[in-house]
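User: Quick sanity check before I run a bigger batch. Here is a single chain. Can you write out its predicted 3D structure?
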Amino acid sequence: MKALDQLTFDNRFASLGDAFSTQVLPDPIADPRLVVASESAMGLLDLDPAQAQLPLFAELFSGHKLWEEADPRAMVYSGHQFGSYNPRLGDGRGLLLAEVRNERGEHWDLHLKGAGQTPYSRMGDGRAVLRSSIREFLASEALHALGIPSSRALCVIGSSTTVWRETRESAAMLTRLAPSHVRFGHFEYFYYTKQPEQQRVLIDHVLAEHYPECRDAEQPYLAMFRTIVERNAELIAYWQAYGFCHGVMNTDNMSILGITFDFGPFAFLDDFNANFICNHSDDRGRYSYANQVPIAHWNLSALAQALTTVIEVEALKQTLELFLPLYQAHYLDLMRRRLGLTSAEDEDMALVERLLQRMQSGGVDYTLFFRRLGEQPVADALQLLRDDFIDLAGFDAWAADYLARCQREADNATGRRERMHAVNPLYILRNYLAQRAIEAAEAGDYSEVRRLHQVLTRPFEEQAGMQAYAERPPEWGKHLEISCSS
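Assistant: Done. Predicted structure follows.
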């Protein structure tokens, strides 16, 4: 394991030049102190976890010190925000601090969020607040632990610097990690500003660094786009299967790698509600849970438009048509696993849809239903879960069909509990759990943030003394309003 001064830097994106980013030094926050760090994420950089306790750690990730080899850059991009094109966005409060290559040859962007004003701040102060930094940290690491592709979070650094949002709040900096921070909006920016040479440089960079397997294809750019479509189909299937709501699926928040990216007013479903809107600012429900599938397709179409300079339109259309069937296949596979099914039958999707309809009408907790379904033999589990439903006749009809479906699998009972518990989490990042941790942190107590983080790193394992983190939320916890303000 390495010390902080032993990292290997390889600033690939920065080397593309000033057409793609602007060199900006981070603006330090006062009295930096460690709020929380992820040992798992530190391992991606080969960092010894003990380094997080050093004053230098907080100094580096709060803007007070900088590695000599680092080349901090604010990236420029555009994007469609709530369906409307914004021609110039960019890193308004973040910086690509540095790019590190670990001992396995993997490249990781160190991105500092809340680093101060940049040329793309658009009247903003360039700061992030403690509450949003904690939420993104917890979400990144929780999704990763669930097996859902995501950017990672290295640490949150708190401070005595204050900023104004709706009220006075504490500023913080979040350091997140990803193999790339290139977004759909990067390609849109060069397309709409009619910079074909720079766009070709960007495409070739992404192809070489992140999709090298596509370079030997007959049409490398088309092969890359197809892989992006495939990755996003799988990603959205995971979101839907596990009840994750992103909240702000603008094209500038969509990673070119097909990973969950740029967390804002996200939420996991408590009671199942297909029409759930997690973003208080989304008054029309554009980014509701049910709309995440068509919006992902819409965003891929926006990316395809930006790639028409290098790929035939008809080929792009045909590739886009793969999204929905790919999504459906991934989603059904995940839901079969969540139901403990080991084979495929034609009526399985109808079985899933009927269950979700019953859950919605009864306000059934989405996560705990699947977990408890695997706790007991099938018939016993169904009997225990029956009381959670309002439409008992409807549930009984579904339960009879599900029981018969399980009985048609000869070995369904063998290892059923272990198999289902391996894919059905006991602990998820509910909004009220995050809120309690945030309130404690804002009062100077970081222990709850750290404890919640540790619980969420092992979401499928029952952990002694942590039952409170696995309970249904109180009523007030189901109605927290989260907005884009940070």
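The chain has 16 helices and twelve strands.

User: Great, the batch can go ahead then.
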